[in-house]
Protein: Conserved oligomeric Golgi complex subunit 5
Organism: Amanita thiersii Skay4041
Amino acid sequence: MSFSFPPEFSTFTALDFNPSDYANAILSGEPYPTPADTKPDHVLSKFNLDPPAREDLSEAISKLTYNIDDVTKQIKYLVAQHHEDLLSQAASSNELSGSLTSIRANIDELDNSLEKLQSRVHKPYHSLQSHVARLQYLQQASDILRRTSRFVTLARRLQIQITELEDERPITEYHKPQEQNASKHAVLDVNQELRDDRERVLAKAARSLAELATCLDEPLVQPTVEVVLSEHSGQHGAKLDQTTLRSVRAVTNHIPFIEESRTKVIGEMENLLYSGLTSRDSAALASSLQIAYNLRILPELVQDLVSDLTKGLDDIVHNAFDVSKLSKDALTKDTGYISQTSSTYKSRIRTEPTNVTAAQWASTLWGKLEIMLEGLTECCTKVYLLEKVLTIKRDVVTQTFFLEEAMKSLDNQPSRIFWTAMARTLEKHIRDTVKSSTFLQQTLGSGYPKLIRLFHAFFTKIAPHSDTMYTQTTQSPETVLIINALSNLESLYLSRSTLKMNEAISQAFSGGFRSPPSATEGLNLARVIANELDAGKFDPLLARSLAKNVLPIVNSVLMRIDALMIRDRSAFTLTGTAASSQLISNAQLTTCLYQCWSMLERLKTEQSDAVLKIIQPSLQEMRKSCDNLLEPIQTSIRREISAIISKLHRINLGKTADIGTSLTSASFYIRDLAEKLTFIKTEVLSKVVSIAQFTVKTFLLHASIAKPLSESGKLQLANDMTELEFALNAFLADSSQGRHNGGVESIGDEYTALRAMRYSRTSYSRIITEKEIRPLLFLDNEQLKSEALTNGLRPVLVLHHILVRSTVPLPHALHGWQEAEYVRWLDEHSEEEALALIEGGLDHWEKVSEGEDREGKMYADLARTVLRESV
């Protein structure tokens, strides 16, 4: 039973209760502070509080006595009140003493049992611990003896293998020429067999050396007694005593021989490796890599080999672009200069050539570049040979590919590492060269196509040994990487090309408004652009760059022509016998642009599709600008030509010619037309095919509706057609070059129709036999519906001629139009609309005539037959 003090006695049960303070508090009539209210001295000092004042000691003692008596009374009162509880607690304490006695007896028995267990476990444990330690030492000694035995066996086997190697000749001696009296093939077979045997012995010795190194360096773990105890007790972090066979005296005697043998095998392996790379012998290279794999140094060997090859690139490229070496080589070749200066003094090395020695320097530079590319070819061939052998070759025992083993120390495949290093080296040296030497900058910048051709030869040489390809349609990423490394030189070349084309533009437009460019300037400008494109046509990447370079040039030409174009009304009016200066200026600009476009348009048959894809939008824009410039002038010219040809209807072609009258002279409108074409050619435009086409088309339409038309009228029209052909030939002929290339034949279908209209009966039989175009004017009525005889003629022309022979009115007569208005309507509408108009006229005539005109009905049926066949 537990006893708890009332709350009023908590002050006396506090640990920090001080009777003196309590007595002083009572005597002073102040409450004694509770433990929660009690504050330390430093707290009182913090708030500047002074301790309570102390009263007189006698008074305090009297108060204390009084309080003690009071406490005594209270204790007596409490004892009297709780005497039963106190008696029960006293009885319980007696019972507890008996329980404590039994517990003490049990503890004594437990101590006796513990002593017995210690005597039975502790001593056997220490005995077992010593036996376990001895067993571990025995196991370690057994392992050391086993490894030592294995080591000695391998060392003796290595001695035998090294002895075999010393008895044979080195591998490099098997390639030396043999005696003359020996059979060539027999000697080669013997050498190959001996070489194979030696390579096998080297591979075995390499494997023995690798196993010996493993035996020597593999640690021997020696668990101690503390390790065993820590494992049983569950503790971790115990250290192990590690040693190797190098601490065994029986082993250390063989270490010098092993190191010497390893050095010898590695030397033989390196000789075999470099011999295989130099002679491109895949078998020798594979054997050397097998030896390196057996030595377990294959990744390091391949890494060092690739590093040596890539470092060699820097030396090769540096020798080609080194200005000081270039100067020495140029002076060495210039024997005249050396002999002249040797007797005087030795001048300092020049970094730039003079005007006299510039050609010698350039020749030396290109020679050094050819040597550089030969060195790059040799290095590239070695890298690809190494990668090929690594890819194919694998270990016979583990079946591990050598390339997988080599990639443990390489970031990428050897070929890619080589290409990246080559591109980086070329870019660095070219950039430094362009900055440091003006001569190299000018020579390589202007001769960039020649440098690209040298790299083409380089790509061709390495193609059989690698998977690279560089053609017009396919470029390997490696080749593109190398070409991009020459971007500094390409930029110089493109700048020169742009400057050359800009100079041609400036020269063409140097006259300004007073002397605008003509056809000659347009041809010269197009010739310069075409020459620049042709210069890089052999290289797909250079061709694309040049094509992109042409785009701003074409835009510049269009902007300059647009700035010089005159937009006054007088510039598009063709009246009288003389053209205005504004019209002549615009015509020259149009001719210049047209000639430039027509020559550049021929590039479609010369350049690749990639280049055409780049320049095609510019050519289309040039053609569009040319059409926009030409349209107002052509409209004025067409108006004048149409007015002249419409005078045909003033001639009476239906009269019968008198006997003896000659029809050899041309009509007056043809003479006017010929004069107008000559005037247009000399004053306005020349060799514009569209004008010739419009002239023939308009003439044929007017001639087909000329009514009435007699036989003499047909002969007159045939004669006029001949004169028209002569006039068009003169208009389209290229008189500036002294030849008549093209001519009226170049206008196409219109010329075919003209020839079909103008043949006479005397030549009809010859036309039939030669299967040429048939004359429409002299065909019989039944022949008019034959497609074979009217080949090359529009159905509208045939229908017009049928209606001219009949009494059926022509469409323009039916609608009350003038001939010129009807021809203009036909020019503005499609062929289907024209046929529909003629068919509507036939329907109207049939309704009006009601079948009374039989002759007209026959021609109407013939016209409907032609209409059905033309659909």
